[in-house]
Each structure stands twice: as structure tokens, then as C-alpha cells.
Design a protein that fits this description.
- Helices cover about 30% and strands about 20% of the residues.
- It has about 240 residues and is an alpha/beta fold.
- The chain has a seven-stranded mixed sheet with strand order 3-2-4-5-1-8-9. It has a four-stranded mixed sheet with strand order 6-7-10-11.
- A hairpin with a 2-residue loop joins β8 and β9.
- The radius of gyration is 17 Å and the shape is globular.
Length: about 240
């Protein structure tokens, strides 16, 4: 398998998809392909004209960046047969946004199984934020509002650990709610046989076969029930997670 699982699309104060552009370009250049299937279903509020218009706005926004990198993006929401479009794809991108809506649509359109099968058979996969969440066994470590109820919380299970994108350590002054770490500890009490990778913004996981490498400028925080969280620096081989 070849996956690029990105914590966030955009760092504060930067252009859209600015920080991961070179990683994306290098990842796709290894394949030699120029057209990439885009899954926009997490983008529900990018237009005042409704969800379909939001998908179109999302496609246009992503395509603008990918065109600059030398690639063409076409969105699955325009395809008459979404399942067949995945089978015909040369690479697939799953954009970020609301994970609940993304998972709802992937189950509704019966795309979970075919995406999993295609990626496990070599289809290159790029996902950021919610798109990284769905590569995991479930979506239970998302940060998102449950705006819709999916058929199931189960996801692609391309990796056998959970990801928490946009992971932050900070405790906001005057804020009485749980920290991110406390919320992940709650998850681990109930799901005590799985790792959770806290991916800070500006970092990603590059997966080639059974090898996983952390890339970016910040360390990853790894959680497991019964153990203290551990920090792993960029460039670290963390293939034991597979």
C-alpha cells in the first residue's frame, strides 16, 4: 500500500495546502499518473448554496492547487457510478472537513469496501484531516461535530491504529472542558487494544508497504492504554504500528 495521511491541509497564515504541497507532488510523481479522483464529501459548508455546491467549490479549490503541481483533479460527486469511478481511478484523494458526513456518504454510496480493496491492491491514497481519519479502523478519534449519523463508525481499516489529526497539547486559559489528551484517554479506556497517533499540524505519515515514517517539523504523540504517551520525532520509522 501507498498512503499519505496528513494532519491538516493548511497551517495558520499560509496559503491553502501550502505546507504539504511538495510531499503530495513527490508522492504522486512516483506513480507517473496525472489524473486523481477526489472525494469531497467532508466539505459541507464551503458554499452558501448547499452541499452539492460545496462539493463543487471544494473540487475547484483543490484542483487549483493540484494544477500548479502538474495534476488534474476530478470529483467523485460528478460521477454517475461512484463505485466504478474508484475501480477506474489511478489515485485517490480524500479531503478534510466533517468526518461524520464523509463517513455517512462513504457508507451510503457503498464506497468503503471498494476503496479499501483498491488501496490494498496498490491504488495510491492521500487523505488530510477527515481524509486521514477514514484510513483508520474507525472514526472514533475525530474532533468533529456529529452533524449526521453514519450507518457505522467503521472506516477503511487501511492502518491498524487510530489517528487524531490537528492534535494539540495546549490547555486554553479559562476553558473548563477536557484537553485533547484527556479525550483520547477516554477513548483508550474503552478501546484499550489500539494505538492512537496524535498528529500535530504540519505533520503527516508516509506509508509504503509495511513502512511508516513521520514527516514534517513536529513530533507525533503516541497513546496506548496502560502506558505513558510517547513522543516520536520527524523522520522516525514507526513501522511497528503496522
Amino acid at each position: 500500500m501507498r498512503l499519505l495521511l496528513i494532519s491538516n491541509s493548511t497551517n495558520y497564515g499560509e496559503d491553502y495546502l501550502e505546507w504539504p504541497r511538495q510531499y503530495i507532488k513527490d508522492f504522486l510523481n512516483k506513480t507517473g499518473i496525472k489524473r486523481v479522483l477526489f472525494v469531497p464529501y467532508a466539505g459541507v459548508a464551503l458554499s452558501d448554496e448547499g452541499v452539492e455546491a460545496s462539493y463543487e467549490a471544494y473540487e475547484e479549490r483543490v484542483n487549483g492547487v493540484f494544477n500548479e503541481l502538474g495534476f488534474e483533479v476530478y470529483s467523485i460527486h460528478r460521477e454517475k457510478d461512484p463505485v466504478q469511478s474508484v475501480k477506474d481511478a489511478l489515485a485517490i484523494i480524500v479531503g478534510g472537513g466533517n468526518t461524520f458526513h464523509l463517513v455517512y456518504m462513504l457508507h451510503k454510496l457503498r464506497l468503503m469496501k471498494v476503496i479499501k480493496e483498491m488501496v490494498e491492491n496498490g491504488l495510491p491514497f492521500i487523505g488530510w484531516s477527515a481524509g486521514a481519519n477514514v484510513a483508520c479502523p474507525t472514526m472514533r478519534t475525530t474532533n468533529d461535530m456529529p452533524i449526521i449519523e453514519p450507518k457505522s463508525l467503521n472506516c477503511l481499516n487501511l492502518v491498524h491504529f487510530q489517528i487524531n489529526p490537528h492534535y494539540i497539547d495546549a490547555t486554553l486559559e479559562g476553558h473548563g472542558g477536557e484537553t485533547r489528551e484527556q479525550r483520547l484517554e477516554e477513548f483508550l479506556v474503552i478501546n484499550n487494544n489500539i494505538y492512537v497517533a496524535g498528529l500535530r499540524e504540519g505533520t503527516l505519515l508516509s506509508i509504503e508497504g509495511d513502512k511508516i515514517e513521520l514527516m514534517g517539523k513536529k513530533p507525533m504523540r503516541l497513546f496506548k492504554d496502560g502506558s505513558s504517551p510517547k513522543e516520536f520525532p520527524p523522520g522516525k520509522d514507526i513501522s511497528f504500528l503496522m
